[in-house]
Design brief:
There is one protein chain. By secondary structure, this protein is an alpha/beta fold. It folds into two domains: 221 residues, Response regulator (Rossmann fold), CATH 3.40.50.2300; 126 residues, 3-Layer(aba) Sandwich (Rossmann fold). Helices cover 38% and strands 21% of the residues. It has 14 helices and 14 strands. Strands 6, 7, 8, 9, 10, 11, 12, 13 and 14 form a nine-stranded mixed beta sheet that branches. The protein has a five-stranded parallel beta sheet with strand order 2-1-3-4-5, sandwiched between helices. Strand 12 and strand 13 form a beta hairpin. Helix 3 packs parallel to helix 13 and helix 7 crosses helix 8. It starts with a helix and ends in a 12-residue tail after the last strand. 53% of the residues are buried. It binds benzoic acid (BEZ). The site of benzoic acid has 11 residues, from loops.
């Protein structure tokens, strides 16, 4: 917990960055179970992402054995459908009706914004295992909200430098028209222009549409040196296939944040050959933790882990820090938050540290698809920290 907030708390002040003393202290809630809520998409274009996050999280908690700290772990689930319009209702269901000790959620940036607004009122402990909305650990940052994934500013920031180094100076950015796509595009522009590139056009399709024909035609007529993009899940499969089918791949190389190929490379097949991405995880990372994690995940779920599984797993590792500090009693919120602040996580992606605004400070890797494998071709940026614009926590 930040110094001033802690001082205020110890002095008995009710003001703790918008949370009431009661909600943060979580005074009377003590049970013989640990109540974990998943607010994730289980249907729609991000369904696979939600499931991988839940799988990874369960794998981490499983490392504590059957009855950690003498308690059972009870799970509660809400399918948020990646629908921002339902975010407030869904967050209230899991935080108030199910009265969980911690929420693991969510994937879609717009849904995360609605969820965090509710969490700021209820004081619920939240770990964001994917959604990159910059404000979650920026203007809307809060003592009770942590993220184990990335901010939307991070993955596309290193991309422009790599492209310019390859002599590709005029680019188009293509994405879905919603918070994550717009923030990814803005960050790409910042990094690309700083490296000497020029974004000649941004092209959008509404989320979660996958009708790409019109933008592919426009790309062909504008003839940029390269195309960069943000797509994920089912939409990423369709975009990469359509891009190749339109005959663009040979003449205009395709780049993206690593979500473009994560968990969907097999489905993309030959169409993904040659695609270059930057991301905070690569399945080919040769560290011992990654090898053990991938093996354990394969054994448990009979499928390959991806970045979403890692982010869920790391959410579990982060929560374990809070459980260890509180002997499994998450109603001791101040202690739980203290344990999570400044945490160092021994992750399959490589060790990372929690920033003051509660977002990972982490390496970003460059990958290129060769023979159906996402090969690591370099480290695009070491220890990249989100600027956390507008977050008061970092100044305290
Ligand atoms: C987002 O909405 O923040 C997001 C969704 C999927 C992958 C990456 C980011």
């Amino acid at each position: 917990m930040s110094i001033i907030n802690r001082r205020e708390f110890l002095a008995g002040s009710s003001a703790l960055a918008g949370l009431s003393f009661m909600s943060l202290a979580g005074c009377s809630k003590k049970t013989d179970s640990i109540r974990v809520g998943f607010m994730l998409p289980y249907t729609g274009t991000y369904a696979k992402l939600g499931m991988a996050i839940e799988n990874g999280f369960r794998l981490a908690l499983g490392e504590l054995g059957d009855k950690p700290f003498g308690k059972t772990i009870d799970f509660y689930t809400v399918d948020d459908e990646s629908n921002p319009a339902k975010a407030t209702d869904n967050a209230n269901k899991i935080m108030t009706r199910d009265n969980v000790d911690v929420v693991i959620g969510t994937v879609h940036s717009g849904v995360a914004m609605g969820m965090i607004k509710v969490a700021k009122d209820t004081g619920s402990l939240v770990i964001v295992p994917n959604a990159g909305a910059n404000a979650a650990t920026g203007a809307m940052c809060a003592p009770n909200v942590f993220r184990t994934s990335f901010s939307n500013w991070q993955p596309t920031h290193p991309l422009g430098k790599i492209m310019v180094e390859q002599g590709l100076k005029k680019s188009i950015f293509v994405t879905w028209k919603y918070g994550a796509g717009e923030e990814a595009s803005a960050s790409f522009r910042e990094g690309f222009e700083a490296a000497g590139g020029e974004v000649i056009k941004e092209l959008f399709v509404p989320f979660p549409n996958v009708e790409f024909q019109a933008i592919l035609t426009e790309i062909a007529s504008l003839r940029p040196d390269a195309v960069a993009c943000f797509f994920a899940g089912g939409g990423a499969v369709k975009f990469v296939k359509d891009y190749a089918a339109a005959g663009l791949k040979k003449s205009i190389p395709l780049f993206g944040s690593g979500f473009l190929t994560e968990g969907v490379l097999d489905a993309q097949g030959d169409a993904a050959e040659g695609v270059t991405t930057t991301l905070h995880y690569a399945d080919q990372l040769q560290n011992a933790k990654n090898k053990a994690f991938r093996e354990a995940y394969r054994l448990a779920y009979s499928e390959e882990a991806d970045v979403y599984a890692v982010q869920g797993y790391d959410a579990g590792l982060l929560l374990i820090k809070a459980l260890q500090e509180t002997s499994g009693d998450l109603s001791q919120k101040v202690k739980a938050i203290q344990a999570m602040e400044g945490a160092e996580i021994d992750s399959p992606r490589g060790a990372w540290k929690m920033s003051k605004s509660h977002n990972p400070i982490q390496n970003f890797y460059t990958m290129k698809v060769r023979n159906g494998v996402n090969e690591v071709v370099g480290t695009a940026w070491e220890n990249l920290e989100d600027p956390a614009v507008g977050c008061a926590l970092k100044e305290l």
